[in-house]
Write a structure and sequence with these properties.
- This protein has 255 residues and is of the alpha/beta class.
- It is 34% helix and 18% strand.
- An eight-stranded mixed sheet has the order 3-2-1-4-5-6-7-8, sandwiched between helices.
Length: 255
């Protein structure tokens, strides 16, 4: 049961169908791995913490740089050169004192995947690397963990949920050959609102998984264009020959 201060903290969402005391208790007991505490991660972490997720493991090896601040509002100007993950965990606990956090200062790698995913109910891919996304996709499906992945580029973003037993398949079903790494935002540009909006949508998709609610992105890819203010849901399906999740897997392709 929620104690009185916890109940007051989340009192505005308790009346919602699908949450209530039971759903909130599920969120409090949830353990989530978030890889990346940059633009997407700052938005997703903040929403998960404020909605009452009980434990967040933050995998982030980078330090704060001045050019991060316009899209990563968990950090302050006088915190440049300090570790992002450490600062993020401290800020999140100040937002929600009932939250427990763990900072992992090493990057996510296939070799570390099993230990990082151990005890987790869900993982979020908030990185900025196609290679990382595919590594997390393979690791999470192998470990039997759902994954919510997001990415942004210029004014656009995408969000999708992968489950080990999901009919929508996985990232490798969509892109058997991983696309080239996108140019860094310093070259292409990024406005701070885009990772903010997409990161919030990523957190929402994660909450639906944790609460067991319908309407998520298990079988769809959500595409968002914040210049045109349009969204599109693209239906996904599992490929029998997918090298990661297919029943008749082919070889894992490389870019």
């Amino acid at each position: 049961m929620l104690n009185p201060t916890e109940r007051l903290y989340v009192s505005r969402q308790l009346p919602l169908p699908g949450i209530g005391e039971e759903g909130q208790a599920r969120l409090r007991g949830a353990r989530v791995l978030v890889v990346g505490a940059g633009g997407l991660g700052c938005a997703a972490l903040t929403q998960l913490a404020c909605c009452g997720v009980g434990f967040l493991r933050v995998c982030e090896p980078d330090i704060v740089e001045l050019h991060n601040l316009h899209r990563q509002p968990l950090y302050a100007h006088d915190e440049v050169a300090q570790p992002k993950g450490l600062l993020a965990c401290d800020r999140l606990r100040r937002l929600n004192p009932h939250l427990k956090t763990e900072w992992i200062p090493q990057p996510f790698t296939p070799e570390r995947a099993a230990s990082l995913l151990e005890g987790m109910d869900l993982a979020l891919d908030c990185g900025d690397s196609v290679r990382l996304s595919h590594q997390m996709n393979e690791a999470c499906l192998s470990a039997g963990k759902p994954l919510v992945s997001a990415a942004v580029h210029r004014w656009q973003g995408q969000v999708l949920t992968m489950r080990p037993d999901g009919a929508g398949g996985c990232l490798a079903c969509l892109w058997p050959v991983p696309p080239p790494e996108p140019a860094i935002s310093a070259a292409t540009g990024i406005v701070g609102t885009v990772p903010g909006v997409v990161g919030v949508l990523q957190a929402q998709a994660a909450l639906l998984v944790l609460l067991g609610l319908p309407g998520g992105l298990d079988g769809h890819l959500l595409l968002v264009d914040l210049l045109e203010f349009t969204t599109r849901r693209v239906e996904r399906s599992r490929r029998a020959t997918c090298p990661v999740c297919g029943k008749e897997p082919g070889p894992i392709a490389t870019a």
